[in-house]
Design goal:
Strand order of the largest sheet: 1-2
Radius of gyration: 15 Å
Shape: globular
Strand content: 5-15%
Largest sheet: 2 strands, antiparallel
Order of helices and strands: HHEEH
């Protein structure tokens, strides 16, 4: 079943003018080891002010170690390189960025 579109579409990008820390955080957000679709999702979150930084370590679903410090990731960098998959959605990629 197809979901309805959101009621209020984002037509104008959110501009952070009151918080310099957010601008620095958005510029430094890691964008490596992602497939094009996941990269587009994270870029959207940054552009519209929805990106949240990960404050604690997360557990990798492949090696079960708490080593993920990047937001919105499920695979650590090492496992992502080993299985050549996107760190967010596990989609196989030919090579890493």
């Amino acid at each position: 079943m197809k979901k309805k579109a959101q009621k209020y579409q984002n037509k104008i990008a959110f501009k952070v003018t009151f918080n310099e820390k957010y601008n620095l955080m958005a510029d430094r957000a890691p964008r490596d080891r992602l497939c094009p679709q996941c990269l587009e999702q994270i870029e959207w979150k940054i552009q519209y002010g929805k990106y949240k930084v990960s404050h604690d370590l997360s557990k990798c679903t492949n090696c079960e170690q708490k080593v993920i410090f990047k937001a919105y990731r499920k695979l650590c960098d090492k496992c992502s390189d080993e299985i050549l998959a996107c760190a967010k959605c596990f989609e196989p990629t030919g090579s890493q960025q």
